[in-house]
Design brief:
The protein has helices at about 25-35, 50-60, 105-115, 130-140, 160-170, 175-185, 195-205, 240-255, 260-275, and strands spanning about 5-10, 10-15, 20-25, 40-45, 65-70, 80-85, 90-95, 115-120, 145-150, 170-175, 210, 220, 225-230. It contains 9 helices and 13 strands. The protein has a 9-stranded mixed beta sheet with strand order 5-4-1-8-9-10-11-12-13, with helices on both faces. A 4-stranded mixed beta sheet has the order 3-2-6-7. By secondary structure, the protein is α/β, with parallel strands linked by helices. Helix 8 (about 240-255) packs antiparallel against helix 9. The protein has one domain: 3-Layer(aba) Sandwich (UDP-N-acetylmuramoyl-L-alanine:D-glutamate ligase). The chain is globular and about 50 Å long.
Length: about 290
């Protein structure tokens, strides 16, 4: 199945000590959904600057539809200063940048009305303007569209209103072992992850929740199933983007008819592979793709 995907949110450059690389969770997701054999459209914004031009060119070359990426003349393309410790990142996210000023385009509206999948996060909704763009997009996608929320708590850029609204809209929720702790601070619930995910799924009527656990694999909670899939031990270089790759691989496999165990195993493999690379958007070998 050719999965038509729309993702919305931050498009930025991750600035590492040894250089900068294109990133942003929704942008990483769009890249990886495309690399899994889907058709990706990205909704975001860049500045009228060299970084913005480079970002659009790079995504276009990878096959991502960038018709929904606007240029904001008086704001810079987003950037994040990333520090790595044992391959794991901490972030200093620059404020009031282009992706804080997302507007929907005619191309976006057209893509949204035909979408099989919509993916968003919480960080991309930090400004009033981009929050409004998200909510407009939510109203454009068809009822049959799979709505995927990939929680990404970064610094102080999250609020109870945005988090709860996203939970209410999600068909599939993906979060990691750090984010699940912060989520409890907003919605309360059981201390044990297994019981908390079950409670969360029923409370917000979420079809599927996926909790990633790094090298320990992932836990999947859905109707009549609750299991932990084993992970893979790899030599970690950089985990930035590996979670987004995991999400893209999981939903691509799911929308092509695989059972949840196969989805989890495939996503674990893809996420682990990306963690061994020095970029969140590496070239994906055929053995890690759903559709070659």
């Amino acid at each position: 199945m050719l999965v038509k995907s729309v993702s919305i949110g931050e498009l930025l450059y991750d600035v590492f000590p040894d250089g900068e690389r294109l990133g942003g969770a929704p942008s990483n997701f769009a890249y990886h959904l495309e690399s899994q054999g889907g058709a990706s459209s990205l909704v975001s914004a860049v500045g009228d600057d060299p970084r913005g031009t480079s970002a659009i060119d790079s995504l276009r070359e990878s096959g991502v539809d960038v018709g929904g990426v606007t240029t904001v003349a008086d704001k810079p393309t987003g950037s994040v200063v990333v520090e790595l410790k044992d391959g794991h990142p901490s972030y200093d996210i620059i404020q009031d940048v282009a992706w804080d000023h997302i507007d929907l385009t005619a191309d976006t509206a057209s893509s949204a009305r035909e979408a099989d999948l919509l993916c968003w996060g919480t960080l991309g909704q930090r400004s009033c303007r981009s929050l409004q763009a998200h909510r407009q997009l939510f109203d454009l996608v068809p009822d049959t569209c799979l709505r995927v929320c990939d929680i990404n708590f970064r610094m102080h850029f999250h609020s109870e209103e945005v988090v709860v609204d996203s939970l209410k809209r999600a068909d599939l929720l993906k979060l990691n072992d750090e984010e699940v702790q912060k989520l409890r601070g907003y919605v309360g619930g059981f201390a044990q992850n297994r019981e908390f995910l079950r409670e969360l799924r029923h409370r917000f009527e979420i079809q599927t929740i996926v909790l990633t656990l790094g090298s320990a694999g992932c836990r999947v909670c859905a109707h009549n199933t609750d299991f932990k899939a084993p992970g893979l031990e790899v030599d970690v270089v950089n985990t930035v983007g590996s979670g987004d790759a995991f999400t893209a691989a999981f939903v691509m496999k799911m929308l092509n008819g695989a059972d949840l165990w196969d989805c989890a195993w495939h996503a674990n493999r893809v996420g682990a592979y990306v963690a061994t690379q020095d970029s969140g958007m590496p070239k994906m070998p055929d053995e890690y793709r759903v559709i070659h």
